[in-house]
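Risk register update: the risk that structure generation would not scale has been downgraded. Supporting records follow, first protein first.
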Amino acid sequence: MTKIIFFLLFVLLGVPRSFAQVIETTVPLVIDQSKSTVKTRFVPPKGFLWIKEEPGSFSEFMVNFPLHPPNLPVRDFKMVPITKQQNHAAILNIDVGDKDLQQCADAWMRLYAEYLWAQNRKDEVGFHFTSGQFFSWNDYRNGLRTKELKNKVRFVQTDQKDDSYETFRDYLNIIFRYAGTISLDKESVPVQRNYDIKPGDIIIKPGSPGHSVFVMARVRNNVGKYLYLLAESFMPAQDIHILRNNASLQLSPWYELDIHSPQTTTAKYVFKPTSIKRFHAIK
């Protein structure tokens, strides 16, 4: 339910001190439940406007991603609603799969791979395993398969050549099994400036387990202040969902981000220190 918010927040993030400004939130923060994409459902706070992302970019793909109808619960890979339903503002309209694989870093890899597939850039799909081995979609569709021997993953050539989307999903399940926050962190580079944070960037804590969330969208006001929508999957594998901002209910679901902040608190995780990165292949 829309709430009237009486909140004044001095903005020092990403702009010089002389340009510190108050975010106007004395009008309702609007979520238009009748709309079906990220950009159309979430209305920027007063004074902020959507940034026109580069046509054909991963950022544009994220901002225009379709959403499930409102009031749908977040479900796990067994299609069972998870216990806590208070942390999401919307759910992305994409399947979880039927195995406990598409978790936090995997959710980002799924979206990036789907983007490349939709752009007919399938030859660019490929990720490193945590072990350091690289495995591409081209390898898999041409018959290369994985085999575990003495707790090590090895590649074997087979005659199972297939470039169908169903086979593509099988390939991604292998990526989800053997890649994660550690490998994704190694394949990404730090974002150097606050104003350069964009949809598709990752907030990440590598580890076993670690965690990651990613930027779905951004808006900006006339003095260069940015706000962001964040999304994630979690454990067990579950619907990818846009997060509420439980640390700042006045601003929720929008977040402020600062690459220099000692920590970033999201709905279900505290990233300490803050590490905002971009996959190396994305310019």
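Supporting record for the second protein:
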Amino acid sequence: MRGVFVTGTGTGVGKTLIAAGLLKALRDSGVSALPVKPVQTGCLEIDGGLSAPDLEFCLKVAGVAPDESLIRLMCPFRYSPACSPHLAGKMTGVYPDVGTVARKMDRLSGSCDFLVAEGAGGILVPLNDSEKMIDLMVELGWPVVLAARGDLGTINHSLLSLAVLRNAGLRVAAVVVNHLTEEISLVTIDNPLAIAQHSGSVRIVEIPYMQNPEELAGNPCFMERMSELCRSIMEQS
């Protein structure tokens, strides 16, 4: 089972955007890749079931229309409450766990050559009373892409996240600095440079502000950077 795990310094930093871009770039290069969203909170109720918006976005961007049996494997734990996975588990009585997710992903890998997994929240978000998101990353042992925002505060969040990932023995493929606003300042220019300087030569990929993420597939700058990152990841995995 081969793949890459997209995590973030927190929520709302662009994990889904990056996961979708990587998936699209991989498939465009001829790699049979599928997305995974092991745990999705804040699901939408559609036709009596729960739809995972992050997974649906990735599938739409990549132009993939798998059957329902594969979609269930791609997102085995779905919750309506928009909260941490462990709290959603407490509220519903069904907690996500590493073993179940890993087994589902192993089955899914039989239908493709590569998986692009996107975590929920950040690295240390609890899944249940004893496991965190990083435990799933360690179980998989895949290269990790860390999504970080580009504005004030990101240096500390990024370096702390990198330290946790490395202490767990995980390979960091890149830090993707996602600029969430159009603002360009000394701070936003320096942040990626500071992360690179103080992180021990981690690869930095910058994503300029994108007004409409729905159009990422038609954004040449974004897709070129995702393609370059994919080539690097494939060499590591």
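The two ends are 10 Å apart (CA to CA). On this basis the risk owner (M.S.) recommends closing the item.
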